[in-house]
Specification:
Distance between the termini: 70 Å
Number of domains: 3
Largest sheet: 5 strands, parallel
Radius of gyration: 26 Å
Structural class: alpha/beta
CATH architecture of the largest domain: 3-Layer(aba) Sandwich
Number of helices: 13
CATH class of the largest domain: Alpha Beta
Helix content: 40-55%
Order of helices and strands: HHEEHHHEHEHEHEHEHHHH
Strand content: 5-15%
Strand order of the largest sheet: 4-3-5-6-7
CATH topology of the largest domain: Rossmann fold
Number of strands: 7
Length: 341
């Protein structure tokens, strides 16, 4: 529908300021002040100068209005992007113990893995709603072994909440290995009893440790911290915590590349393939190296992480060289015995 002047009035074409303010539950005068002073939105204008607000503009105004009503200064949040506004709104909702409108947390999707039957039962019995935390998918595992099984063929899990009765050094090692396997961005552990060395190993590795939660409030605080760290890591692009990159080529494929003739008479493919194998070997060595102390274990994990990232970068360079040579457009080349020189 259009007016006699030809300007659109439907939500599909855009909201006028009165409609946008009404949906965001704020006075039109407030909308105009926020827009003029703080630049909260930048609506398009028609030929006659009429402001038209999009659906995204209205959602943004709704989030800002909600946050201001909960004590945030308009000047501090006016220029935040939508994801940051959603993050603040969800955190405020968790702290207040309320459920945020699903439309306001759009795009915040966290895959949560819950390990330990007793913990799952207690969480479900607490009645805590996972939606305000951005959890879109919940996977339950009976124990660490079940969680690790089949991890290579399963989609990554963003956050792990693990419950164990007894925390020993071998259990700490399993938790670290599970984090690597599922590529978790944040891990929290709930335990009853444990050794100081095992707890320190996990703290150094970045795992948050909790004693058995006794109340719904404690569950909320624990989940809020866990999911908040996932969202922070998503925004920063930092994958340093748990996600090691899987090898693109196995050793047989690398041997095939190393032995294949280069049309530009260049030794780079062979050298790159050898570097990948050496870096991968050093990564394994670092992971298996005997640890004399908690600090020693943390150092060797760091060395393994660095080796893994270096290996991934060299593999990417190798793939580019191989594509430039026209060796393959999809799968890697065949092993040496299948190569026709």
């Amino acid at each position: 529908m259009v007016t006699s002047s030809g300007e659109p009035t439907t939500a599909q074409q855009g909201y006028r300021s009165g409609e946008a303010a009404r949906i965001a539950k704020m006075p039109v005068t407030t909308l105009r002040i926020w827009e003029r002073r703080y630049g909260v939105v930048g609506p398009a204008k028609t030929a006659s100068g009429q402001r038209l607000y999009t659906e995204d503009d209205v959602r943004r105004l709704t989030l800002i209005k909600l946050l201001v009503s909960r004590g945030h200064a308009i000047g501090a949040i006016a220029r935040l992007d939508r994801e940051q506004l959603q993050f603040l709104a969800a955190r405020n909702a968790r702290e207040a113990g309320i459920t945020l409108d699903a439309g306001l947390v759009e795009g915040m999707e966290i895959r949560l893995g819950l390990v330990g039957g007793n913990l799952a039962q207690r969480l479900q019995g607490s009645g805590v709603d996972l939606r305000p935390y951005g959890v879109s998918e919940l996977t339950l595992f009976a124990d660490l072994g079940e969680a690790k099984q089949g991890s290579e063929n399963r989609a990554p899990i963003d956050a792990l909440l693990i419950g164990v009765d007894s925390l020993q050094d071998d259990v700490a090692a399993q938790i670290v290995a599970l984090g690597d396997a599922v590529r978790a961005k944040a891990i929290a552990l709930v335990y009853s009893f444990g050794t100081g060395s095992a707890a320190e190993i996990l703290r150094v590795a970045g795992v948050r440790l909790y004693r058995e939660p006794d109340s719904r409030t404690e569950f909320r605080q624990m989940l809020g911290d866990l999911c908040e760290r996932v969202q922070i890591r998503d925004r920063s692009g930092d994958e340093a915590g748990w996600s090691r990159v899987r090898r693109r080529y196995d050793d047989r494929e690398l041997e095939a590349i190393a032995n294949r003739s280069s049309t530009i008479a260049c030794e780079c493919p062979r050298h790159l393939a050898e570097l990948v194998m050496k870096l991968s070997a050093f990564e394994r060595y670092s992971d298996e190296c005997t640890s004399r102390s908690v600090q020693d274990a943390a150092l060797h994990r760091y060395l393994g992480d660095v080796s893994n990232r270096a290996c991934a970068m060299v593999e990417a360079a190798l793939e580019r060289v191989a594509r430039e040579e026209g060796w393959f457009a999809g799968p890697p080349p065949e092993p040496p015995q299948a190569v026709q020189e």
